[in-house]
Amino acid sequence: MIRITRPPEPPALAAVRPARLAAAAAAVALGQKISFDGYDRAKPALAEMQYSKCCYCEKREEQAKYRDVEHYRPKSPYWWLAWTWENLLFACIDCNREHKRDQFPRAPGDVALQPHEQPPGGELPLVINPAEVDPIDEIHFVCEKHNGRERWLPRGTSAGGRSTVAVCKLDRPGLLDLYLEHVNQQVRPRTKLVIDAARATQPREVVANWSRATRSLLAPARPFRALSHDALAVLVAPALRARYQLPLARP
Fold first, then answer.
1. For every residue of the chain, which 3-state class applies, written as one string?
2. Whole-structure pTM value
3. Which of 225, 199, 202 is nearest to 213 (CA)?
4. Contact 140, 71 (CB under 8 A)
5. Residue 143's CB: how many other CB atoms inside 10 A?
6. Is residue 83 classed exposed, middle or buried when 0-12, 13-18 and 19+ CB atoms within 10 A define those classes?
7. How far is Cα 168 from Cα 76, in angstroms, rounded to an integer?
């Protein structure tokens, strides 16, 4: 996960919200089922905001129109936030439908929002909202060996990070395969150029290769930027980076 910068609300969502919210409130008052139509008008803006990448796993979704609008606070229990721009994200089907679903763990002892109350109120969510919290401080990728095979595992470094990994299953087997493929095909070839130049005592090439690697791997539209950042930190040793003054910017 990486930090997401949220732009202003799209007019298409603002236009539909008053009528949909009024209809939802009326349905609740009558004990009827809520129609959640209309929030998908935000999908194009959300996909653009996130460069068509899932807000949780950072996997790129080529066909954004067939993917999901994710409700950070789930729309069933938080129906009055279903059309709220700040509550919407863009997500892959696996993270949204298969894993997170209506889960929204909160810290013990917090106070749940009441209908029509705006967040955060007294709630203390244990799922990271990447548009509000920088996940790079909450989840780190670590390299481990399992049955002789390398794995890059997301590990929560806070209660929110650990809960987010568990809820969204960011360590599910399919993602672990994608993480390893990304490191081996995208990160390692670039870090090898840096290390080879250092061994050949070519300072300019070290700096140039590092600059090209970080610009490419950490560019906003690239998938798995958080993984790239942490893999760069592991594969190019801190001592080497310090010797050549190689900066590693936050994604």
1. CCCCCCCCCCHHHHHHHHHHHHHHHHHHHCCCCCCCCCHHHHHHHHHHHCCCECCCCCCECCCHHHCEEEECCCCCCCHHHCCCHHHEEEECHHHHHHHHCCCCCECCCCCCCCCCCCCCCCCCECCCCCCCCCHHHCEEEEEEEECCEEEEEEEECCHHHHHHHHHHCCCCHHHHHHHHHHHHHHHHHHHHHHHHHHHCCCHHHHHHHHHHHHHHHCCCCCCCHHHHHHHHHHHCCHHHHHHCCCCCCCC
2. 0.94
3. 225
4. no
5. 15
6. buried
7. 18
d(C-alpha 243, C-alpha 198), whole Å: 10
Q: What is the pLDDT tens value at each position of the chain, 251 positions in all?
A: 999 999 999 999 999 999 999 999 999 999 999 999 999 999 999 999 999 999 999 999 877 777 889 999 999 999 999 999 999 999 999 999 999 999 999 999 999 999 999 999 999 999 999 999 999 999 999 999 888 889 999 999 999 999 999 999 999 999 999 999 999 999 999 999 999 999 999 999 999 999 999 999 999 999 999 999 999 999 999 999 999 999 999 98
Domain ranges in the chain are: 11-100, 175-251
Nearest to 102 by CA among 81, 75, 79: 75
